[in-house]
Amino acid sequence: MSTILLIISIVLTLLCYILIFISSLTSKNGQETASEAVIRLTKDDNGLRLVESKDNPLNKYQLKRKIIKLKEKTYSSKSYFSLSIAYLLSGYSKLKESSLEYLSKVIPYFYYLSFTPIISLVITLVIKTSMDAKIGIIIFIIILIYQNILSNLNTKAIDLVKDDNKYITKYLNNIMFISKVFILSTIIQLIRMIILL
Fold first, then answer.
1. Would you say the pTM of this structure is higher than 0.85?
2. CA distances from residue 171 to 5, 132, 157 in whole angstroms, order as listed
3. For residues 84 and 81, what is the distance between their CA atoms, to the nearest angstrom?
4. Domain carrying residue 176
5. Fewer C-beta neighbours within 10 Å, C or N terminus of the chain?
6. pLDDT tens digits, 142-152
């Protein structure tokens, strides 16, 4: 049973990363660049700044200062994949104060959170004994909490920037679908840890 759960979680995680990779490669181009989309979506907020950057597109400081950072490749890209990222970041900027507080707590770990499914797989492959499983359960519960917070914030952010464009809607829905599958994969690995006890 433990091996079956491990295989299921590996397959789910790999399928999601393959979907992300294929989406980024096969994305069609829209009418506007990602930077133009951010400007249009956030035009009501005069205090918001858009910048082009080489480093992590989001961190706590930028949230507090109302800065949206787009990576160089995304900034001038017209692909719907890049536009969906611009929409999501614009949605973050529109979140209400309580949601922004949660987001500012999660964001310092945002970069690492995108790799939590891989980190989870590595942990689950290393864990063999019941003592290791106890530690694994604690780690997976923490990862699951962060994944849930991020998924809920993504849902709220996407609701604030819904669009009639079917391609953008498709990519935003993909973001939500992938985050839910990653959560499912973490739950499966957590169940595997419980079985190992």
1. no
2. 29, 38, 14
3. 5
4. 2-196
5. N
6. 889 888 888 88
